Amino acid sequence: MRQSGHGPIGVFDSGVGGLTVLKALMEHLPHESTVYLGDTARVPYGTKSGEVVTRYSLKNAEFLLERGIKVLVVACNTASAAALPALEAALPVPVVGVIQPGARAALARTRGGGVGVIGTPGTVRSGAYQRELAAGDPRVRVKARACPLFVPLAEEGWTTGDVPLLTAREYLGEFARDGVDTLVLGCTHYPLLKGVIAEVVGPDVALVDSAEATAEAVVALLTRQGLLAPANGPAPSHAYYVTDVPERFTEVGARFLGRSIPTAEQVDLKF
């Protein structure tokens, strides 16, 4: 395991959604360099089998390790659900997924009324959030629902107005009726729709952004292991790689990252 603050934070996702995690990391860790890989040639992961997602994840991790990363952040709920044990067993650096931090944050926020989880079909079907929440508090009531249309809405920039609002009402109306007091945004696209989600579930339901929770977990890990980049070190760099043509990634990704992406390099992972 790397024992210094040198080396970037490696982050991967199936596409642009993980840029919400990268955004949170940049805000919490402004001195750290990062390397982001979006596996845009094989997006989405949420409809694929766990075995396939694990194979893709290991290849993504191999690519990032070659770039000298000191920690790997799996900024994809589906990959975190399916591949985290395999990644932890295979990699010589610490691995942080998005599910455990999100679940722990939800347990800290709930007032006992139950926790809702929304995500891709693959994430919900895996039961990963449900297991993590139950492990943290066996008494917690969990209600999970897949919300697949939220992903294209976020990518197209349809985050306000009638279309996302009606979609959110269709997906989420039952959460308010069922007494859920905390809702985990279990997909990295969903923070872009936080406004309409909050409007539908109401002010009494706390929203947990797994991207923020994951960034906080990475800060704690790097601090604990003495891997933080020094504040007086070289200016941080941020590199972006994709497995398909980069034009749409840089255009759409800017909305997720909250800043422009100057360039992204297309790479072939040679499966």
Please, could you describe this protein's structure?
- By secondary structure, this protein is α/β, with parallel strands linked by helices.
- It folds into two domains: 9-97 and 212-266, Rossmann fold, CATH 3.40.50; 99-211, 3-Layer(aba) Sandwich (Rossmann fold), CATH 3.40.50.
- It is built from eleven helices and ten strands.
- The protein has helices spanning 19-28, 50-65, 77-90, 99-109, 121-126, 128-136, 150-156, 162-177, 194-201, 210-224, 247-257; strands spanning 9-13, 34-38, 71-74, 95-96, 115-119, 142-146, 182-185, 206-209, 238-242, 265-266.
- The strands form two sheets. The chain has a six-stranded parallel sheet, sandwiched between helices. It has a four-stranded parallel sheet with strand order 6-5-7-8, sandwiched between helices.
- Strand 9 (238-242), helix 11 and strand 10 (265-266) form a beta-alpha-beta unit.
- Helix 1 packs across helix 10 and helix 2 packs across helix 3 (77-90).
- The model has no long low-confidence stretch (mean pLDDT 93).
Layout of secondary structure:
Layout: E1 9-13, H1 19-28, E2 34-38, H2 50-65, E3 71-74, H3 77-90, E4 95-96, H4 99-109, E5 115-119, H5 121-126, H6 128-136, E6 142-146, H7 150-156, H8 162-177, E7 182-185, H9 194-201, E8 206-209, H10 210-224, E9 238-242, H11 247-257, E10 265-266
- Describe the largest sheet: 6 strands, parallel
The fold-level CATH name of the largest domain is Rossmann fold
CATH architecture of the largest domain: 3-Layer(aba) Sandwich
Envelope shape: globular
Q: Give the helix level as a range of percent.
A: 40-55%
Order of helices and strands: EHEHEHEHEHHEHHEHEHEHE
What is the tally of helical segments? 11
Count of discrete domains: 2
The top level CATH class name of the largest domain: Alpha Beta
**Measured distance between first and last alpha carbons:** 26 Å
Structural class: alpha/beta
Enumerate the spans where pLDDT stays under 50 for 5 or more consecutive residues. Answer: none
The rounded Rg comes to: 18 Å
Strand content: 15-25%
Overall pLDDT metric: 93
Walk across the major sheet and give the strand order. Answer: 4-3-1-2-9-10
Overall strand count: 10
